[in-house]
Amino acid sequence: PSPGPKELLIKNEYVASNPKDWKLHDSTVWDLGDRVEGNDVAGYVDAIGEGTTRFQVGDRVAGFSMMATDDKYGAYAEYTVVPEGTTFALADHVKFEEAVTLPLAAMTAAIALFVKLDLPKPKEVGHGKKPAVFINGGSSSVGHFAVQLAKAAGLYVITTAGGSSELPKSAGADVIIDYRGKTPDAIAKEINEAAQSAGHTLNRVFDAISEDIVRLSNAVLKDKEAAKTTFILQVSEKDEQAKDPKIAFVQTNVGAAHAMRGDDHQAFATEYYDWLGEKLAEGTFKGNPVKLMPKGLASIGEGLNLLKQNKVSGQKLVYRISDTP
Hints:
Layout: E1 7-16, H1 20-26, E2 40-48, E3 60-64, E4 79-83, E5 87-89, H2 96-99, H3 103-116, E6 132-136, H4 141-152, E7 156-161, H5 166-171, E8 175-178, H6 184-197, E9 202-207, H7 213-220, E10 228-231, H8 237-242, E11 248-251, H9 266-282, E12 290-293, H10 300-308, E13 316-320
Parallel strand pairs: 6-7, 6-9, 7-8, 9-10, 10-11, 12-13
Antiparallel strand pairs: 1-2, 1-4, 1-13, 2-3, 3-5
Helix pairs in contact: 3-4, 3-9, 6-7
């Protein structure tokens, strides 16, 4: 494939999977047919399109390709075209397999926290007390990045996790609540008690896993001023009707990094990818734990089935191109 204006052709060393890769194919909204999907890539710049100024051929990079548009943007291939603005440079010591876990999931978390919830950004860290945020699903890929981003911004972070609480703990979460066997009301009570005992008012919720978020948000944010929740997946019609009208429910669309579906956060995305590249180099921001699939691109089907069956927790499925038979 050839890169267009302000696009890069990347020779992939590693690619990674996200749950949306199977969800879009199963969706009635997106007609993908047999289109090549996947959006997380890491490798070397092989060619640059017209007007490209930030990268040169041979640079080590990771990037987030455009979703559900054209095969040339699909990550599950040896070469992928990626917009310059959603690509970030990798220092020589940063491993491709760690960097490839970031592009889609870390940007989802950044847009959710700093655009949709309008929380203070890491670059705005100053003196004074910072607000609290509840992140539902701190051991998920997106949740792990959300906890790190929130802590980099100086926020007080309360999150939920099941059996794999080590991941949000290592990311710096202040409070980790085991949600197993508890009702949304019981979880909400623990969340609010944790915020109050630390002297925080909690009126922001980010759902990183799209599980029972309406009932949980209604319970956590009841009677709170300027309360807001952001979520990734469209909620069901039943949940739509159950929303507390006093709470603002807004969807986070990571496609906004490419100005898709009427949502344009391209400038924000470029700024934050540069920041993520710097923090990865410093070692102050970490990728998801990696589960390396054994047969490179030949393992994609197996990986997507594992995600579909909900058998992946606290890890990112990664494929090394050179392992492909």
